[in-house]
């Protein structure tokens, strides 16, 4: 049976190989207090996820849920407090020197603010030439020029030669994000971490950037992490979705399954919040803004209790373990 046929049967087909794996990762930040009585924020609690070549995983959650912390750990900006991160089977936390530099080239990040990530005093050519010369010393001067033009062309900045001498302020937000993507691709990465890559762009250009990232994911078989507040775009770009709340993964599985049949009350809340002109507004349903709880090493129970319509005594005491509810679909809730 071909992959396409197998997919039509409804089975979850995970193509590609696991490139990066996070296993039971905690990340603590010391916020203050004395040496003997520190206030420790647990920004991530027991997070496990995989990035697979040619596939994207969307990491969805509200502000402060720990999405960027997760990406920064994958990029080796932060070390985990507990748990392991492996890259092609090797322990990332042990990388130093040349191995760490190579890892940082293999794992590229695209940030939400395309202007902040480019140097306003330097040309677009400079932004592409530097990583090419640093990470691909085999290329001759002429080959570097050709590669810069090919990269700009590939991200849709045409005619490419026109863009080389321009500076970031001469480009629109969407064009700057295309330059940032070209720069990330210049070092031939294996993993792409896209941290809300469209949230600061005009709505009209967002789809173009998502399409470009999708093309790059497929053509280069990148293992991608797509961070977003917006569960609706998660389905568009990512095959798999993981929902993060107060540093805990509360639901994870195929994007289509998660958006069609969300099981965790938090995922259901995110889906209900997606604007849908066809849906009637229920006057009985009221929403109040609630902050994500500050999770510490002493916190217990499920972090969603203060907002959960299903809450019972056990939820206040014990964090639920992951429960399978479908092929490659897990939920952490006592009441599914
Ligand atoms: N370096 C740090 N020191 C202390 N606390 C931090 C640090 N980095 C992040 N945090 C805290 O960790 C929690 C998670 O932050 P993070 O930026 O990962 O969330 P996020 O989901 O990416 O939010 P946003 O969507 O607003 O970027 C927040 O409470 C944040 O204040």
TrEMBL record:
Compartments in which it is found: Cell inner membrane
Main location: membrane
Keyword terms, alphabetized: ATP-binding, Nucleotide-binding, Transport
Residue span, ABC transporter domain: 20-271
An individual GO BP term: peptide transport
GO annotation, cellular component aspect: plasma membrane
InterPro entries: AAA+_ATPase, ABC_transp_ATP-bind, ABC_transporter-like_ATP-bd, ABC_transporter-like_CS, Oligopep_ABC_C, P-loop_NTPase
Molecular-function annotations in GO: ATP binding; ATP hydrolysis activity
NCBIfam families, per the entry: oligo_HPY (TIGR01727)
Family: Belongs to the ABC transporter superfamily.
The protein, known as: ABC transporter ATP-binding protein
Originating species: Devosia ginsengisoli
């Amino acid at each position: 049976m071909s992959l396409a046929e197998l997919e039509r049967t409804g089975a979850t087909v995970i193509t590609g190989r696991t490139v990066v794996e996070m296993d039971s990762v905690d990340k603590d930040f010391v916020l203050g207090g004395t040496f003997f009585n520190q206030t420790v924020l647990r920004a991530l609690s027991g997070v496990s996820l995989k990035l697979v070549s040619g596939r994207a995983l969307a990491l969805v959650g509200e502000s402060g849920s720990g999405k960027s912390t997760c990406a920064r750990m994958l990029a080796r900006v932060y070390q985990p407090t507990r748990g392991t991160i492996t890259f092609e089977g090797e322990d990332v936390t042990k990388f130093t020197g040349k191995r760490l530099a190579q890892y940082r080239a293999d794992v590229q990040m695209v940030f939400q603010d395309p202007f902040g990530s480019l140097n306003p005093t330097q040309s677009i050519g400079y932004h592409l030439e530097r990583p090419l010369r640093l990470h691909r010393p085999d290329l001759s001067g002429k080959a570097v020029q050709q590669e810069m033009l090919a990269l700009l062309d590939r991200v849709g900045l045409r005619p490419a030669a026109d863009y080389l001498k321009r500076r970031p302020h001469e480009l629109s937000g969407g064009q700057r994000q295309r330059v940032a993507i070209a720069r990330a691709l210049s070092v031939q990465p294996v993993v792409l971490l896209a941290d809300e890559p469209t949230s600061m762009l005009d709505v009209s250009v967002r789809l173009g950037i998502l399409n470009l990232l999708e093309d790059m994911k497929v053509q280069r078989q990148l293992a991608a992490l797509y961070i977003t507040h917006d569960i609706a775009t998660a389905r568009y770009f990512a095959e798999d979705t993981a929902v993060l709340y107060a540093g805990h993964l509360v639901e994870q599985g195929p994007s289509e399954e998660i958006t069609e049949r969300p099981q965790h009350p938090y995922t259901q809340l995110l889906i209900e919040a997606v604007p849908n002109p066809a849906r009637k507004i229920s006057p009985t349903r009221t929403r109040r803004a609630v902050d994500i709880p500050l999770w510490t090493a002493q916190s217990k129970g499920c972090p969603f209790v203060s907002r959960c319509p299903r809450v019972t005594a056990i939820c206040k005491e014990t964090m639920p373990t992951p429960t399978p509810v479908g092929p490659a679909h897990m939920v952490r809730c006592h009441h599914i």
